[in-house]
Write a structure and sequence with these properties.
six-stranded antiparallel beta sheet; globular; HotDog_dom_sf; repeat; START-like_dom_sf; serine esterase
């Protein structure tokens, strides 16, 4: 007994020491990554530090958001011009969430660098932090992504082609990879609200209420004359100045509704539709579109005009405000009664924008609105693949199994080089319904919905590892095989530039039209998928990722512990399937092209995260 107890104790101590060593090694690796990030010198990086003076602040002695936007736009523009070698202008700015306010006497630190350059535009990432000089404290205020284009003064050249960015650090490579997905979102941003409203997915809200305030009372109209101090070095009106003026009129409109001093929380993505120059008159209009329980949305429109000629639409933006009490909690706000026709349209659009913000777009309607779901899907897989702390667990016949432990989450990566061109492997693996031919865990795989040419929704049935209750309160006899099913959004992406991998990303979504079956457990895939990279001699490095959920954890734990080799056999079957079908990679894909794309209204019957 003493001998067994000693062996048990020794094993436990070794296991504990091993866990401590692994944790320490991971922490050292993280510190090394941070050190490399600090030592790296990005040629496009620009830093700005400004001490907040009383002239920069509002009545509460807090930094004006308009002033902060001017500093952010200046820093980002300098970064873009450093890469382009030519004057640049702001094309758009993504959503901005302001996490904290900045007080007078504190220091604002702004860092901007080009994440990725496309053909004629580039994405600049902006990080804003605050520093308290007397308490030696730092905290993040907000981050944003701006798109810049190059100004071409040569009459014989219509556009300037930008040279590509070469990311160096781990963080730069992640941002470089995900920038392509953010670009997809920007390109269809203007059509998203229209699609949501036209398909009837947004339930009409009450347009009036008890003691509701008429929207006309919140209207603000202001004219600004563009003077030389308001212009940039290209004699165009500085984009940051336009944003500051828009924030000013929006603040007045919000104050008229709540009869208090509101705090700006978010600015939705906006696009500059045209330039403005010195001598222009900028007409700024603002009105409260809708008021919710503790927040309100203000719409702002900027138009430019000369003494003669029509008004030119420069920009539109939507800003969300809150009114905070003495303890910093949001106060209840009065309801709004919109104007007929146009006011009612803005009222309903505000509801749609709020739903997008809160639900991270819980709908898949057309090819436009699906990009938000697919963006989350693809970016999650790319960020998982970019992690540096992967550990080799087992290796057999060139099939390698890696694990990644982060807090309470376990992820796996299985990889192998296959003698199949990357494009062919991508075409075969992207058709998820064919996975039943090589993966024994896939009992059924049915295409439910073709959202667009790059995004599909499948229902997958696999054996269940949960032997408890099934689906709803009903249960199955113990002798009957218990199954589980998944509703998976599959997003496929081809490389945007040489060196990028093919991506097949999988994640679970919820379709009210496909509720859980009584004889199936409804499983969840947090993040999974393939990356396929072209190697030498037209071979492919295929990597499969899976972030462990309760439905797959028993399989992963057995493989990691060496008690099972299911991943090895499955990956070998996948390799054999690819080799056997590499001469006819598009046979199944052609069959899918014949499927009818559902109408936006039918598809929008709501796909929720």
């Amino acid at each position: 007994l003493c001998l067994f107890f000693y062996i048990y104790l020794e094993t436990g101590l070794n296991s504990a020491n091993s866990q401590i060593t692994t944790k320490k090694r991971c922490e050292e690796e993280d510190d090394e990554i941070v050190r490399q990030e600090k030592e790296s010198c990005n040629p496009t990086e620009v830093r700005m530090s400004q001490i907040v003076m009383p002239c920069h602040c509002n009545h509460r002695q807090e930094l004006s958001v308009g002033q902060l936007l001017k500093w952010m736009d200046s820093t980002a523009c300098l970064s873009a011009e450093r890469h382009a070698g030519s004057p640049c202008v702001t094309a758009s700015m993504d959503d901005i969430d302001f996490e904290h306010t900045i007080s007078v006497g504190q220091v604002v630190n702004i860092q901007a660098k080009v994440n990725r350059a496309f053909n004629t535009s580039m994405e600049v990432g902006i990080q804003v932090s605050c520093e308290d000089l007397f308490q030696d404290r730092h905290w993040r205020v907000c981050h944003a992504f701006a798109t810049f284009t190059v100004c071409c003064f040569n009459a014989f050249v219509s556009k300037v082609t930008l040279r590509p960015i070469a990311p160096q650090t781990h963080k730069e490579k992640v941002e470089y990879s995900i920038a392509a997905e953010r670009r997809r979102v920007r390109m269809v941003h203007d059509d998203i609200i229209k699609d949501l409203l036209s398909s009837g997915s947004i339930q009409p809200d009450s347009l009036s209420g008890y003691n509701a305030v008429q929207a006309e009372k919140t209207k603000v109209e202001s004219v600004e004359l563009v003077l030389p101090p308001h212009a940039n070095h290209q004699v165009n009106t500085f984009g940051g100045q336009i944003m500051a003026w828009m924030v000013n009129v929006a603040m007045i409109a919000a104050s008229r509704l709540c009869q208090a001093h509101p705090t700006l929380r978010t600015i939705d993505m906006f696009t500059f539709r045209g330039p403005s120059k010195v001598g222009d008159r900028l007409l700024l209009r603002a009105i409260v579109n809708n008021a919710f329980k503790s927040s309100l949305e203000v719409g702002v429109r900027a138009e430019a005009y000369q003494e003669e000629g029509p008004n030119r639409h420069i920009n539109s933006a939507f800003m969300t405000f809150e009114v905070l009490d003495k303890s910093g909690k949001p106060c209840a706000l009065p309801r709004i009664r919109p104007e007929p026709v146009e006011g009612e349209r803005r009222f309903q659009e505000a509801i749609a924008r709020k739903k997008i913000r809160l639900d991270s777009v819980a709908f898949v309607s057309s090819s436009q609105t699906s990009v938000y779901l697919s963006y989350n899907n693809v970016s999650a897989l790319k960020m998982l693949a970019a992690k540096k702390s992967w550990r080799l667990s087992t290796e057999k016949d060139q099939v390698c199994l890696y694990t990644l432990e982060q807090k309470s989450m376990l992820s796996i990566r299985v990889e192998k080089v296959v003698d199949v061109p990357a494009a062919t492997a991508f075409a075969l693996l992207a058709e998820l319904s064919n996975r039943t031919l090589w993966d024994t865990h896939y009992k059924e795989c049915e295409l439910i919905q073709r959202v667009d040419e790059d995004d599909f929704i499948y229902r997958v049935v696999t054996p269940s590892v949960l032997q408890g209750k099934v689906g709803s309160p009903t249960s199955s006899p113990q002798k009957e095989e218990i199954l589980q099913d998944f509703i998976l959004l599959t997003s496929v992406r081809k490389p945007c530039s040489p060196g990028d991998p093919y991506v097949i990303a999988l994640r679970s979504v919820t379709l009210p039209t496909h509720p859980p079956f009584e004889k199936c457990n409804r499983g969840e895939v947090l993040c999974a998928g393939f990356t396929i990279l072209e190697t030498e001699n037209k071979k492919s490095l295929i990597r499969y990722y899976n972030q462990a959920s309760p439905e797959v954890l028993p399989y992963i734990s057995n493989d990691v512990a060496g008690l099972s080799s299911s991943f090895y056999h499955t990956f070998c079957a996948c390799s054999e399937y690819l080799i056997q079908h590499k001469l006819h990679p598009t046979a199944e894909a052609d069959q899918q092209q014949t499927l009818e794309t559902p109408s936006p209204t039918k598809t929008l019957q709501s796909t929720q995260l």
